[in-house]
Write a structure and sequence with these properties.
By secondary structure, this protein is an alpha/beta fold. The protein has a single domain, classed as Phosphoglycerate mutase-like (Rossmann fold), CATH 3.40.50.1240. The chain has seven helices and six strands, in the order E-H-H-E-H-E-H-H-H-E-H-E-E. Strands 3-2-4-1-5-6 form a six-stranded mixed beta sheet.
Length: about 180
């Protein structure tokens, strides 16, 4: 069975702009307009799912998509770091930040480590491959990055070598036996 998966990263928030680990915050006004502008370029989907986070739900709404919430599409759980800036962490907890960025099984913030996040992305993708058709998933840069690594079978240390910007679109296909990245329209 052939499956097409279109990942859409939610639009820009104040956390993105300030380099802060996000809370459940809304999109910036400009991001809503930018999201609406890209709606006409989307292809018809058989299923649309979104992270339950406000920023993902607002992205779906601005795209005129009726998305079902799916907790597996949620952002990384940053634990006690939620709301903090990376600059603050570099000053206050440099060793913890370094541990988190260098060891995929480290979670000094008390939340999810990258290995757990990648397992969650893979667990979400597996049943999608069996359903076939075209699915649109509105999620977060962190989850999309781990999904890319899963497809490439790349080590989790590569997580930091991939950037997914707000409103990025990443396409994947499943041919019945494996996932692949798809480039182009």
């Amino acid at each position: 069975m052939h499956t097409r998966l279109t990942w859409i990263c939610h639009g820009l928030t104040s956390a993105n702009r300030s380099g802060r680990f996000p809370l459940d915050e809304p999109l910036e006004e400009k991001a809503i307009a930018e999201t609406r502008a890209m709606a006409e370029r989307l292809q018809r989907a058989d299923r649309v799912l979104a992270s339950p986070a406000l920023r993902a739900r607002q992205t779906a709404e601005a795209l005129s998509l009726s998305a079902l919430p799916d907790p597996l599409l949620a952002d990384c759980n940053y634990g006690r770091w939620s709301g903090m800036t990376i600059a603050d962490l570099q000053m206050q907890e440099p060793e913890n930040l370094l541990a988190w960025m260098s060891n995929p099984e480290s979670a000094p913030h008390g939340g999810e480590d990258l290995k757990q996040l990648a397992a969650r992305a893979a667990a979400w993708m597996e049943p999608q491959s069996a359903l076939g058709g075209h699915v649109v998933a509105i999620s977060h840069a962190t989850l999309i990055r781990t999904a890319i690594l899963n497809v490439l079978q790349a080590p989790l240390s590569s997580f930091w070598l991939t950037d997914v910007e707000p409103l990025s679109v990443v396409r994947m296909t499943h041919n019945g036996s494996r996932w692949a990245l798809r480039f182009g329209d």
